[in-house]
Amino acid sequence: MPALGYRAATGADLDLIHRELMAVIDESPHYSERFKEHEKGRLTKSFLHALQRVDPFHVIVLTVDDEPGGGLISGPETGAIFRYWSWIFPSHRKTRLGMHGMRVFDEHWDNGKFHKAFTFVRPENEVALALLRRYGYEQAALLRQHIFGQDYVVMEKFYTKVTDTYDSGMSLGRLARWRARLDTLLGR
Questions:
Q1: Any idea where the domains of the chain sit in the sequence?
Q2: Residues 9, 14, 16, 20: is their CA dihedral positive or negative?
Q3: Per mean pLDDT, which range of 49-53, 126-130, 164-168, 180-184 is the poorest?
Q4: Would you tell me how many other CB atoms lie within 10 Å of the CB of residue 100?
Q5: CA triplet 83, 6, 74: central angle to 5 degrees?
Q6: Can you say whether the dihedral through the CA atoms of 37, 149, 86, 26 is positive or negative?
Q7: What CATH number does domain 4-185 carry, 3.40.50.620, 3.40.309.10, 3.20.20.80, 3.40.630.30?
Q8: Measured between alpha carbons, how far is 26 from 183 in angstroms, rounded to an integer?
Q9: Which tens digit of pLDDT belongs to each residue from 56-103?
């Protein structure tokens, strides 16, 4: 039986994660071309680096026998954690890695810092909705014509927040913008 694992992505992983992320965005039948263009423009390597500066585990590599097989990208959103993208590489899609990724995401992030995890899913993406429901996520709302005219379902799972402090999300102030620009110039 293959060993399933996960770890925070390293700088060396980001090329692979970014390439696979761009591919899964391109191949998804659920999103409009305008949305795909937007996501690919937003989820740059610099953006992934910025997420890692907030917490290295905002870019997770899912592994099978220590080899990358999937990714999870998240970010803090004012007391909650937003699942930007969760996907399995084509080479590992017929494995249990997707279920493993659901478990490790919640095990890692239900750490007392957040009220809940949430994500947006297209209503037609029945596989993603079924997987989220299987792991305790519930539909909070149907957002009609929400992103570039497409409907989205908000799925959420409540966590146990125990800290008094709040994460204010990812700020791209002057220093963060300078670091992102430097990352771009250095090809990271």
A1: 4-185
A2: positive
A3: 180-184
A4: 19
A5: 15
A6: negative
A7: 3.40.630.30
A8: 24
A9: 999 999 999 999 999 999 999 989 999 999 999 999 998 899 999 999
